[in-house]
Input
Amino acid sequence: MSGTSTAHDRISHHTSWATRRFTAVLLSMWLGGILLVSLVAPASYRSVDSTMARPPQHVAKAMKQLGQAPMREILQYQASEASRVVLEWWGLLQLAAGLAVFLLLLFMSTAGRPALGLSLGMLVMSLLLEFFLIPRISQLGQELQQTNQVQAMEMAAKARAMHLGFTAFEMVVVLLGAILLGLLLRSRPGFSGSRGGLRGDGAEV
Output
């Protein structure tokens, strides 16, 4: 404990304040990215239905030649591939952001246990998304290429369910991030914090 306290005491109020403000900016960009990416998959799948319902002239011509079912398969595959690429890149970016936020607060600020706990929770959620949920979504997209029409319809439904699960995970990250952002923006440069708990002089959270 003494070693942690000594390292904590070496961080100046100004350094901690600047770190918290920089982290708040990074966190805001992260949360904004989550909201944008969470709209990509549902929008891509909705575009399949809208295209099938009101196809452009050249698509309508191809649909007559191929038939509606093969055309839907092609569009669903394209939507799945677009979502897969976006999610794979986003998973890496989100994991990097989660790691950066946690390490900045841990080593470059006097943020207390509530802020560190929230940032750690966001990092854990990012790890689960990157190494469990996103690979499963990608696997479903690849399996979709090798199935017949009936199986493709079933797997497309599974893919939608997985995307809904992804969105639910991300909304939890947004909730944790919003609370953490409020804590980071609430502090003042002159605050003095302790990771062992609040003090009477206005310890940081």
User: Anything to note?
Assistant: The chain has a mean pLDDT of 80. DSSP finds six helices and no strands in the chain.
